[in-house]
Every structure is written in structure tokens, then in C-alpha cells.
Design goal:
CATH topology of the largest domain: Jelly Rolls
Structural class: alpha+beta
Number of strands: 15
Oligomer: single chain
Bound molecules: magnesium ion
Number of helices: 8
Strand content: 15-25%
CATH architecture of the largest domain: Sandwich
Order of helices and strands: HHEHEEEEEEEEEEEEEEHHHHH
Radius of gyration: 29 Å
Helix content: 25-40%
Length: about 400
């Protein structure tokens, strides 16, 4: 396999250099393998969904979320209705909306979203009062609790030392932020968080979970392992998290303001059955079968050479006796028909002949098709007889 991979490199270069349309087709990059259901540069892989980007926030006004964001707070009473009291579940959130921001009412207790969600990209903006009160953990403390559990600390640490693993932007009780990137109290602070919860399977941790956080555009957590999620005083231990939970905001007795809170769910990781990265072999096989089936279905809508090539393409994902038999017959018929082409008609067929030749060479090279009738050799002879270069 390795030898073949090396031999196709010049082919790819040739294709990119002289016929870029080939690079958008099948039989180009390495085929799917045991844990990856897609070929490299696979045009059958779904296109990324379109998202209209948002606009950045300024001190004067919040920005616009991306088009697919789920807005949790935009300063309207309707968005506040998405939250409830933590002390009195089901009751309205007891914090107050002022000038488009939501202010903690000290003593009223935490608030949490009625909606539950898990892995996400989360955007939160908060501002500490300009009138400084207290120090260390007592100065403008709040917190953002992912799945209602792990706290990304909110604290006015502008000129306020405290224990490092309780700093603004810390995974509280787990890891200090890499930097203190806060602005002065009264300014809006912009948190962007990427949260991946820990995943356990059959009692064993398959992913420790990770938090990435930027504060005002500065990375302060970089895929920090959650180590159980942290907490106050006690050292946490690895443990499974629920698939989803509410987002909680902490009432620590300080009148912090929040605005412009939104999130976007993240795709499933391979360990959860998603197709991002190396998958479990059984899941990859199931996915490959699904892809092969859809390509074969698509082939039914095509005729002649296009149908043949599409069926051949399906072998990259999964073999199937009936499909192989159909290909054997169709490829044989195609080769015989080409042999009957008069010499002065060959040039017009060059593109088509080369396409089928590359497909057969790719499939046989990667041992995805047996070519028991030896059609590859026959087509190569046709190419050489026409004076073309089969490389
Ligand atoms: Mg806190």
C-alpha cells in the first residue's frame, strides 16, 4: 500500500498541474481506512453548513451573534424568560434587566437557563461595577457554570490578586488562566469559551473533557483537561458529565452585569459516535456502508461511463459482490467499445479513457478491486498505442 501511495504522488501533482477538475473528483487522495470513513479530499464528504458570521462587540454596544447561534441573553425580557431561578426552579430569574444588561441581584441566588445543552462554543460578556468593593474572591465575583457544573471564573482581578486557580478565566479549582487579560472595572469583558465535557464509556474515561477560553481575545485556557470539573477547596476527580445541563450564572453577592450571551452546539466527537477524527472501527464500517449505499443509489440515475465510474467509486467505501459483478461486465463492455474506436476518433475520447484508466489503477493499487479480467493492462495498452503517457 505504501509503495502505491508513493507512486500516485506524481499523478496527483500532474492532475493538479494540468487538470484541476480531477482534484475535485473521486480516485484522488488516499481511500477510507479502518477508522476513517472518508477518503482524503473526498468530494462525497458533506459540505460545511453556511454560517453568517456575527459582528464583534464594542464597549458601546454588543455585537451580533453568528447566524446559527442560540441567543440566551440579548437584553430583552423575552431572552430573560429563557432563564429561571436556581433557588426556586421554574420561577423567573430574579435578576434585573437594566439598559440592555442583566444585573445580579445579590442574595437572590444563581440563575440558570431553562434549556439544557452540552458541548458548545459560548460567548459571554460581563462588566464589574466601577465602584470597587472588597478584594481577592470578594471583588465582583460571579461565575459561568457549564452544564451547571464546571465554573469558568468571573472576578474583577484587574488590580486584585487572589489564588491563581480562582482567577478570572480560571477553570475554578483546576487551572489558572494563562494570563490576566482583563480590562478595568466598568469595561465590558468578552469571554469566548469552547467546552467539551468529559466522556466515559463503560465506566472508563474515553475523553477527559476540555475547556478553551479567551478573554478579550487572549487565550487563557488552551484545551485544559477538566480533571473532574473542579470546585471549591476539594480536589476533583475524573468523572462522567451529563450529556447536557443548564448554563448557570453565579450570585456571589456582587452586582455584576451580563450581556450578549449566546452559544453554538459543537459536533459530536468520534468517541461519541461522530465522524470527526479516528472513529471506532465498527462505527467507521457502518458509515462506509452508508456512503457506499448512497453512491450506488446515485449511480442508478446515471448511464454508461458515468454510472460505471460512480459504481467503481462506491468500492472505496465498501465492496459488494453484485456491484463488483456489474463493474466487471460494464468495464469489459466499455473496454471492448473503446478498442473499436477508429484511430481518428481516439483524441476526442482521450479524457474519458484516461479517467477510467486512473479509476481502475487507483482501485487495483489500493486493492479495492481485483480486476480479474486484467482490464487495467488492456486500457494501458490502448493508451500507449495512441501515443499518450499513462503516468
Ligand atoms: Mg465565582
Amino acid at each position: 500500500m505504501k509503495q502505491f501511495t508513493a507512486s500516485v504522488v506524481p499523478l496527483c501533482v500532474w492532475m493538479v498541474g494540468t487538470a484541476p477538475v480531477f482534484a475535485d473528483g473521486a480516485f484522488y487522495g488516499d481511500p477510507p481506512n479502518e477508522t476513517h470513513p472518508w477518503a482524503i479530499h473526498d468530494m462525497n464528504r458533506p459540505q460545511p453548513p453556511r454560517v453568517e458570521p456575527g459582528t464583534p462587540s464594542t464597549q458601546e454596544q454588543p455585537g451580533k451573534p453568528p447566524s446559527d447561534a442560540i441567543v440566551l441573553l440579548d437584553g430583552t425580557p423575552a431572552s430573560l424568560a429563557k432563564w429561571e431561578s436556581g433557588k426556586n426552579p421554574g420561577q423567573p430569574a430574579p435578576w434585573k434587566l437594566t439598559d440592555g444588561a442583566l444585573q445580579v441581584v445579590p442574595g437572590s441566588g444563581e440563575i440558570r437557563t431553562r434549556e439544557q445543552f452540552g458541548d458548545c462554543q459560548l460567548h459571554v460578556e460581563w462588566s464589574a461595577p466601577t465602584q470597587i468593593q472588597g478584594n481577592s474572591q470578594g471583588r465582583s465575583n460571579s461565575g459561568i457554570f457549564l452544564t451547571g457544573d464546571t465554573e469558568v471564573q468571573v472576578l474583577d482581578n484587574y488590580n486584585n490578586p487572589t489564588y491563581a486557580d480562582g482567577f478570572a478565566g480560571s477553570v475554578y479549582g483546576v487551572n489558572p488562566p494563562h494570563a490576566n487579560a482583563l480590562q478595568a472595572p466598568g469595561k465590558w469583558q468578552f469571554y469566548d469559551i469552547i467546552f467539551r465535557r468529559p466522556v466515559f464509556k463503560d465506566g472508563k474515561m474515553v475523553d477527559s473533557g476540555r475547556l478553551t477560553v479567551t478573554i478579550n481575545g487572549v487565550v487563557v485556557q488552551d484545551s485544559t483537561p477538566l480533571e473532574g470539573g473542579g470546585g471549591h477547596k476539594g480536589r476533583s476527580k475524573d468523572r462522567p458529565f451529563p450529556d447536557a445541563g443548564p448554563l448557570k450564572l453565579q450570585d456571589h453577592g456582587n452586582p455584576i452585569r451580563f450581556r450578549n450571551i449566546w452559544y453554538r452546539p459543537l459536533p459530536k466527537r468520534a468517541v461519541e459516535g461522530g465522524d470527526m477524527g479516528a472513529m471506532d472501527p465498527a462505527a467507521a464500517t457502518a458509515k462506509k456502508l452508508e456512503i457506499a449505499k448512497s453512491i450506488r443509489l446515485d449511480a442508478e440515475s446515471k448511464q454508461g461511463e458515468e454510472r460505471l465510474l460512480r459504481l467503481m467509486e462506491s468500492l472505496c467505501y465498501a465492496s459488494d459482490d453484485a456491484t463488483v459483478k456489474t463493474i466487471d461486465t460494464a468495464l469489459g463492455n466499455w473496454t471492448e467499445a473503446v478498442k473499436k474506436t477508429p484511430a481518428n476518433g481516439m483524441e476526442a475520447k482521450k479524457g474519458s479513457i484516461m479517467r477510467v484508466f486512473y479509476a481502475v489503477r487507483y482501485l487495483t493499487g489500493f486493492k479495492l478491486y481485483q480486476d480479474s479480467a486484467g482490464r487495467k493492462g488492456e486500457i494501458e495498452q490502448i493508451i500507449r498505442a495512441a501515443g499518450w503517457d499513462p503516468r
